[in-house]
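Need tokens for this chain, all 428 residues.
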Amino acid sequence: MPWGVSVSMDTYDVVVVGSGAGGATLARELCRWGFSVCVVERGLRHDIVGGGAHAAAYTDTVVSTEGVPIHRAIMAGGTTILSAGNMVPCLEGPLRRRGIDISGEVRALQEELSLSPLLPSLCHEATEAVARAGAAAGMPFEPLVKGIDPSRCDGCGLCLTGCATGAKWTALSFLDEAVWLGASVRYGARCTQVLVQNGRATGIEIETEEGIASIGARNVVLCAGGLETPVILQKSGIEAGRHLSVDLLSHVYGIVKGRTFSRELPMTLVCTARLGDEGYILSPSVNARAVSRHLSSRGRTDVGVANVLGLMIKIRDSGEGRVFPDGTVSKRVTDADRNIFEHARAAARRVLIAAGAEPDTLFESSINGAHPLGSAAIGEVVSPTLETRVSGLYVCDASVLPEAPGLPPILTIMALALRLAAHLADRA
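Here are the structure tokens for all 428 residues:
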């Protein structure tokens, strides 16, 4: 088909743009309710289970105009493919104050996915060292709840590159179930705008290798993520993109002389003791490539990654970023952010030293970002039912979150998707 030719396609009850935590969950639930559903995914489907592909190869990094790298994934399953498997509820209080109660949906997901902290058999020397040191330093660490099946996990520690054993829950499982229930999926199709007639959404326009086409729908739900969804909204005539938040993160590492640590899963523990008053969390995590580069640059041939302990710092963002209609992003590290990092790094250094790290070996990574959110926030761009001012146009991804949680938002987004599915079923 020649480029630029518009082709009218079938009309669905709902077209869902994006197949990540929100999109896949919503598609599955709507199919359960008997809706006809089309999922449109900009990326492709890649075979991660069995070692068929390295998911990190499909990481997309958007660098803000101020130089902050923000990481996301453009592929079937979205960023759940590259997550650490953390499935913790967050923002229940702020959402409740806006008339949104997701407690029932959270409990349903926790039960269905058998969410629980990692078994001790999957936590080794590094986890134990951080737990003991944190307690001694007045920074208590608790096990993080994971969506990981311990019977399938081989402890490789490569969660952030895609789980080759299928032990980690990803949105692909819900997407596959939606397809089994009758959903259609269009891969390699980028939604360029929402089609609107007389104040109501009537479908979307997509761009593929073959050209431009349209998909008709009685309802449209954007689940394309905190950086993509506001672009689509703005191109569709809806003000969005303001108040972008990004979970800014950094790492502090230290060499523990004479100790060799087994490879472990990332973020087995979390310390939230300073989240409320100082706005940061600490969690054990080691970026092997970054550590190897540092050791090589220092000429350290006597030690390797296995001799290093690391703590990830993640801070609660201020929400002053912006996504523009052309997809460019404004996001800076503010003076307030740097002050939080300064306090967090001091705490991380205390914990690492208490764990046996030599003070003169401590080093830090640069600041980057993940979990972009808030760019189509509840109360600003969407209502408590997640509907925009255009009837039949909804948003259900991290962009609707009204504030930065400082914790992984996957479970909360999935709970919002369950709630939205029930709302659409009630309206139907």
